[in-house]
TrEMBL record:
UniProt xrefs under InterPro entries: Ppm1/Ppm2/Tcmp (IPR007213), SAM-dependent_MTases_sf (IPR029063), SAM_mthyl_Trfase_ML2640-like (IPR011610)
Enzyme Commission (EC) number: 2.1.1.-
PANTHER family: S-ADENOSYL-L-METHIONINE-DEPENDENT METHYLTRANSFERASE YKTD-RELATED, S-ADENOSYL-L-METHIONINE-DEPENDENT METHYLTRANSFERASES SUPERFAMILY PROTEIN
Pfam family, one: LCM
GO MF terms held by the record: methyltransferase activity
Role, per record: Exhibits S-adenosyl-L-methionine-dependent methyltransferase activity.
Protein name: S-adenosyl-L-methionine-dependent methyltransferase
GO biological process: methylation
NCBIfam families linked to this entry: mthyl_TIGR00027 (TIGR00027)
Highest taxon, organism lineage: Bacteria
Family per record: Belongs to the UPF0677 family.
Keyword match Transferase: yes
Key words, A-Z: Methyltransferase, S-adenosyl-L-methionine, Transferase
Length: 289
């Protein structure tokens, strides 16, 4: 995930939080990281792009339409799914939270006073995030940032930075499956699983192979940002991967499951512009056996 893709994801969280609740996922820090200038610029670009996102739209709020129907659904659902398991695992004794491909993710800031947080991403992403955090006056001294490429060696630097495989941990891999080759993403999970204690967890979202509707707009967005979505996965592949990695699929949600779990309250109050997860997106939480 490059900076532009990560910025748009951050914008989606900030925009949603700035609207009236109930919230699918409330992120009060996203707007601070993004900054007023980037928030305004992305707002203008998305508004101007309504004919691309929704050629037949004739309403009065094109930005809300774009965010609620294209940008926010999968981002908010995966964050809500991640938050649910993160907070639950903290209650159960979690001591380490590892965010792979962290981008402008803010969940580490929220829990850094309760668990040890490690954030891994490309060097330029880490540098820009730290600059933005400093500009916003957000304390991030308790977080360990590790510049690296997820398709290369990353576990050794993680251990050298203080990660302890013997302690209970949660690996978060939100949004990574779309932009890594299938072999690289599966190796990512295998690598994490080899260095996880029993009861530790691994959470991610992924594009399933049973729907095509997710790809149209989102693949164009990715290509426009200089990226391409590289793989999709069947549930059977995930079952086999979990078995080979010594993991158990603890929870698995389809788009329909996620809509019921995370969007019901919002949609009940915002019937004029409801949200739902893009067809084909799945959400998975695996636990080390």
């Amino acid at each position: 995930m490059n900076n532009m893709t990560a910025l748009v994801s951050c914008f989606a969280r900030a925009y949603h939080t700035n609207q009236e609740g109930p919230y699918v996922y409330c992120d009060k820090l996203a707007g601070k990281i993004l900054g007023e200038d980037d928030y305004r610029q992305i707002s203008e670009n998305m508004t101007a792009g309504i004919s691309f996102f929704d050629p037949g739209y004739g309403g009065k709020d094109p930005l809300r339409r774009v965010v609620n129907h294209q940008l926010a659904p999968s981002v908010l659902a995966r964050e809500a799914f991640n938050e649910q398991h993160l907070f639950n695992e903290i209650k159960l004794g979690l001591t380490q939270y590892v965010i792979l491909g962290a981008g402008y993710e803010t969940s580490g800031l929220v829990v850094s006073d309760r668990v040890k947080v490690f954030e891994l991403d490309l060097p330029e992403m880490i540098a820009d995030k730290k600059k933005r955090l400093g500009r916003a006056g957000l304390d991030h001294n308790d977080i360990t940032y590790l510049p690296c490429d997820m398709s290369d060696e990353w576990m050794k630097p993680l251990e050298e930075a203080g990660y302890k495989p013997s302690e209970k941990s949660l690996f978060s891999m939100l949004g990574l499956s779309y932009y890594l080759e299938k072999e690289d993403f599966m190796n990512l999970i295998m690598t994490a699983a080899r260095k996880m204690s029993v009861g530790s967890g691994l959470i991610f979202d992924y594009p399933g192979d049973d729907e095509e509707s997710y790809g149209t707009i989102n693949q164009k967005l990715a290509q426009g940002a200089g990226e391409a979505m590289k793989a999709n996965y069947s549930y059977e592949e995930m079952e086999l991967l979990a078995q080979e990695a010594g993991l158990l699929i603890y929870e698995h949600l389809t788009a329909e499951d996620a809509a019921k779990a995370f969007f019901h309250s919002y949609n009940a109050e915002h019937k004029d512009e409801p949200m739902g997860t893009p067809a084909g997106v799945k959400f998975c939480y695996m636990v080390k056996r």
